[in-house]
Amino acid sequence: MSPLVLHVVGARPNFMKIAPVMGALSNYPLRIELVHTGQHYDFAMSDVFFEELGMPRPDHYLGVGSGSHAEQTGKVMIELEKVLLERKPALVVVAGDVNSTMAAAIDCAKLCIPCAHVEAGLRSFDWTMPEEINRIVTDRISTLLLTPSRDANENLRREGIPEERIFFVGNTMIDTLLTHLPRAREQNTLDRLGLSPKGYALLTLHRPSNVDDAHALTRLLQAIEEIAKHLPVIFPVHPRTRKRIKSFGLGDRIEKNPGIRLLDPLSYLDFLALMAEAFLVLTDSGGIQEETTALGVPCLTLRENTERPVTITEGTNVLCGTEPRRIIEEAERILQGNSKRGRIPERWDGRASKRIAEIVFRFVEGGGHLPIPEPSF
Ligand code: UD1
How does pLDDT run along the chain (377 residues), one tens digit per residue? Predict the structure, then answer.
């Protein structure tokens, strides 16, 4: 029987990172299975992505749901361990930095199953961010570290990771974007929402540091209100943020502002369509910093740090912190037509997943030994 490669996804950003890897691996003589941990479980946070990205139904659904970090991580570890013991994969593929990613990597390390980490090596150097802990732990114990940018290779080297484990492959989320952009443009998303191209700003917020604290969220809202005087702000709201807006009593203030439009979380294609035609994107997401760089759309990142520096040094991203005055200044600069031009980072060329598939196949075929040669493309 051909070797089994098991993919683990759990939360929204995982889906677009893993979908093209599964697609590329399907061209090799391997068995492929998918585990969904159930960290994200709503239709809008999960199912719709499977539909739009053409991902197969998960072979295993763990149903862990929401909870504290320990609860969520622990439940994934307990449930996934059973699947790993039963299925005995030759390799497990995980992506990104969510709790499900780290939990899966720990299970693999303890069971001596090789784990490949897609999007390895990113560092914000901010240990208060749950994702930073997830990234560091996952990278330290994974076997194949598949990086999206050269800075990520540097971070891993500095942490003492052996060179033979590190592969600069490019960005699989951008593979997905390039594949689906033509379809996204056919969705009539702007028409449905009554928007015109370049006629709005797009906002997303969900980082705990921005939305779990009433003072922090209110300050950001001040900046958004100012920007909304000049340009309508479209705000698809993450469930975490929706809850906080309500519990901090900010719902009325936002809903009554004629310049701010709250939406439920959007599907992948609708969001991509909105991003591609936005005049400006404001976000605290990691992936959106990358997607706006790939699209050449100006992005203001409402955080003090980023684990994706290539979007600043090469792309359209500006790290502008959370201080309202600075956010407004940077938005005004863009409104006056002075946005960063940016260029597409190296290997964000739509072929990252193909490189990964080649590496994974060679690794598995060779019985899990390193070193293996780098793909030649
Ligand atoms: C998680 C990831 C974050 C990623 C984000 C994308 C971690 C530590 N965080 O954050 O890195 O950027 O996903 O969305 O893994 N909820 C629902 N429906 C769902 C999922 C969640 O209502 O389908 C609500 C729950 O009340 C939950 C809250 O959202 O408590 C937060 O979900 P959780 O998975 O804990 O983290 P995210 O904030 O989504």
Answer: 999 999 999 999 999 999 999 999 999 999 999 999 999 999 999 999 999 999 999 999 999 999 999 999 999 999 999 999 999 999 999 999 999 999 999 999 999 999 999 999 999 999 999 999 999 999 999 999 999 999 999 999 999 999 999 999 999 999 999 999 999 999 999 999 999 999 999 999 999 999 999 999 999 999 999 999 999 999 999 999 999 999 999 999 999 999 999 999 999 999 999 999 999 999 999 999 999 999 999 999 999 999 999 999 999 999 999 999 999 999 999 999 999 999 999 999 999 999 999 999 999 999 999 999 999 99
Using CA atoms, how far apart are residues 61 and 288, in angstroms rounded to an integer?
Answer: 27
Residue 325 falls inside a structural domain: yes
Structurally, the chain folds into a number of domains equal to 2
Enumerate residues 6+ apart whose C-beta is below 8 A from 337: none
Q: Whole-model pTM above 0.85?
A: yes
| Pocket perturbation via mutation, ligand 1, pick of 126, 240, 291, 303 by most ligand atoms within 8 A of CB | 240
Span from the CA of 239 to the centroid of ligand 1 (angstroms) = 7
Probe residue for ligand 1, chosen from 36, 40, 283 as the CB with the greatest number of ligand atoms within 8 Å: 40
Q: Which CATH number covers residue 330? A: 3.40.50.2000
Please give all residues whose beta carbon lies within 6 A of any atom in ligand 1, as ranges: 11-13, 39-42, 45-46, 66, 97-99, 130-131, 206, 238-240
Looking at the fold, whether 243 and 360 belong to one and the same domain comes out as: no
**Domain of 29, in residue numbers:** 4-170+348-365
Q: Residue 36: inside a domain, yes or no?
A: yes
Alpha-carbon Rg of the chain, whole angstroms?
A: 20
Q: What is the DSSP letter of 163?
A: G
Neighbours of 27 (CB within 10 A): 11
* Whether residues 136 and 19 fall in one domain: yes
Is residue 206 flagged as an active site residue? yes
For atom 17 of ligand 1, which residue has the closest CA? 239
DSSP string, 13-55: HHHHHHHHHHHHHTTSS-EEEEEE--SS-SIIIIIHHHHHHTP
Residue 45 Cα: closest atom of ligand 1? 23
For residue 219, report the distance from its CA to the centre of ligand 1, in Å: 22
Residue 138 and residue 204 in one domain: no
Q: Are residues 193 and 266 in the same domain?
A: yes
Neighbours of 270 (CB within 10 A): 21
